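Chain X:
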Amino acid sequence: MRSGTGAESPADDSSSPIVDLLAVFVVVFVLQQVAALLSVGLMAGLFVLAPPLSTNPWTVVTSVYAHGGVGHLVSNSLALIVFGWPVARATTRLRFHAFFAVTGAIAGVAQILLTNVAALVTPVPATGGVLGASGAVFALLGYLIASNRLSASLASFVEVPAWLSGLVFLGLAIAVTMATASPGVALLAHFTGLLLGLAAGRARVLNVGSPSRSGSARL
């Protein structure tokens, strides 16, 4: 990965936001266990995003970094490394953290709001609470899919209407979400995160540097 002269420089491995996030995951998980020892309600109030969203608004953010168990923590950490590292090397530390937090928060809120609305008119149960980095990790996967060099090359050779790109992204998001479905998984959060990542990747919002002979940051 390279960056143009005078542009923002992508983070190197020594300052990788991936390492930052893994450390935050562990610290937050320890805090969850301490809070749970004192009171399960305290832990939930601090780290579980639940309706009504206005009751504990900070959980819109804290829930993104919290996990429901060691297995949940490990699986999301591994996925973060696989999908996040290529993206992190093409952007800045600040942009990566902002993207992770925003997409994760939106994915969690979408899971709560959409399932609660659906529960009013369908047998689909409302979501009582959600936590975990999966929505943000799926956003990184979507970004990686839509912004890689092969996708960029195809887009430069084949002019695809915006509405068709939207349909393709929607279909891909549905397919990947259903392929990863299992009991207790926040499917709408995964779907929302992936869709956000695909749209952001198409726009290459995280890539830094401007095209020049010295090159630009690319996935």
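Chain Y:
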Amino acid sequence: MSNFNYYSLPGFGEQCRKEYGFSDSCIIGDRMIVTEQTGMNPLTLKTSLNFDEEAAQAFQNVNDLIVQTLKDAQPFVSIGQDKGWDRVVKIRAFIVCLSSIREQAREQMVHSIKKWCPNHQPLFTMVGVESLPFPEHHIEIEVDVWLI
């Protein structure tokens, strides 16, 4: 396990790494695993009360994390100047109380996937959960990224 390279975003990502002992992403061979990114702004630590805004921030956080991880991984990984989402092959969204916001959540996910992945159609799973570790969070997104 010690030969894997782990990465975190500045702000809350680094805070979690220090306080809780977990990272935001890991590169293993030709694959990057991105853990669940919430809709919280990682620098201000604020989360919108509006689900659509929170989801949009979560997608932005995923992109920022992929781009930052690729930057931090240089020269070990060199795949060009793609946007973060260009190489996402699988998305998993965990949404609190999904049954009560199913239509809104589905519409927001479709909108965001089409926005961030205009040239490909990644695999997608949306799962309803009772709660997330931090009560102000209502969505977490994790992705698998192909680096070749």
